[in-house]
Amino acid sequence: MIEKKTAVKADRLNAVKGMNDILPPDSAQWEWFEQHVRELMGVYAYRNIRTPIVEYTPLFVKGTGDTTDIVEKEMYSFEDRLNGEQLTLRPENTPGVVRAAIEHNLTYDGGKRLFYMGPMFRHERPQRGRYRQFYQLGAEALGFSGPEVDAELILVAWQLLQRLGLCNVRVEINSLGVSAERQVHRAALIAYFEQHADLLDADAQRRLHTNPLRILDTKNPVMQEMVAGAPQLLHYLGEASLKHFEMVKTLLTACGVIWSVNPRQVRGLDYYSHTVFEFITDELGAQGTLCGGGRYDGLFETLGGKPTPAVGWGMGIERVLELVKVQTGVVAALSPDVYAIIPDVGALPVALTALQTLRSQGISVQMHAAMADGMGSMKSQFKRADSSGARFALVFGPDELSKNEVAVKSLRDGSGAQVTRPLDAVLEWAATLQSGT
Ligand code: ATP
Ligand code: MG
User: Fold this and answer.
1) CATH of domain 338-435
2) Per-residue pLDDT averaged across 77-100, rounded?
3) pTM given for the model
4) Ligand 1 pocket: which of 76, 264, 287, 296 to mutate (most atoms <8 Å of CB)?
5) Radius of gyration of the chain (CA)
6) What architecture (CATH level 2) is domain 8-177+237-328?
């Protein structure tokens, strides 16, 4: 039974459906993204947190919410064969971060600003921008209650997309107020939907009394008009909630973020209150939400911790990199500075010593190495040097070596110019091989 479902072609195993290999040169794009993230998080004084990929299932049932899509249908859950524990591959990381914060009493001396990057797992129908293993960058600010941190977090995501050179990304914000306000709105919402019961699809009917707010999130075209006329939560917010929301808007405007209010934005997760937000592009088809987040003041208590205000977001890295490709077409180059041509294996000890010295000076060196058919001819080695994209070939030929020298041939400027350099003074000429010199 299980074997039947495994993706086996003859005797070859493939990757699990919806789970991707990230290969060079694409992986360079990921490193480029991660580099920007680290720099930016440093600038905003957010610190890195790394939590396990596997957590106890109830963390998500309670934390993410048992009426969410994630918990209802998307989790990879299993029983530990050895002790029967119920475990889940994390579908998102906010509950994990909050669990860790409670477990280690992270906020004992004040608020903490944290970020993470890593794989998440959701059993969805794979398509462009929607995978079963996907990567999220997340930022969470724990222990802060004011609207300035909501604004700061939105600003971090905004700045990151700017740094990556992206444009035409909408920032939509909304406020979900506090629980008491949502209760009153909920009653009005249920009453409204009951009046239009004939238009509710099966999903909406099921949610009517468990999570009616989520019905606002429906993608069913038949329900759009009816849903557009539903009572808006914003109209049910009290003075304090409105003040919080107004301040977020003021600060965003002051910092140059272009935003709009989407009164129907509810987010897919149960734990949000006050500010919620999404970053959306129209250039990636149906999977246009790059980043989503909001305030989750109740989550610490839900997970057994002390009441602790918090706010955060998650960003889909595949979607962001796809947009980079669509908008800027930038593909990171992965060329070494130097390709080392070694016609005879006897030259290997001398060549490797010289290459080590070059590398110690930060020169990126790709060494020719034997393939199934041996080291290959000079001609085939030069071919590989060319296709590596290196600016220079270093030729450890017998003539040069007999003079304790190496030939340096220019590959990229069309001149084919060649000089010889002494092998006992590598440090003196290493810098001439540096990219950009
Ligand atoms: P969607 O409505 O697209 O399913 P979501 O509301 O489920 O998104 P969140 O749980 O808020 O998404 O996750 C934050 C971000 O992670 C999303 O905005 C998206 O960029 C990314 N993301 C979510 N699910 C996937 C997936 N299956 N594959 C790739 N990226 C994803
Ligand atoms: Mg989803």
Assistant:
1) 3.40.50.800
2) 98
3) 0.91
4) 287
5) 28
6) 2-Layer Sandwich (3.30)
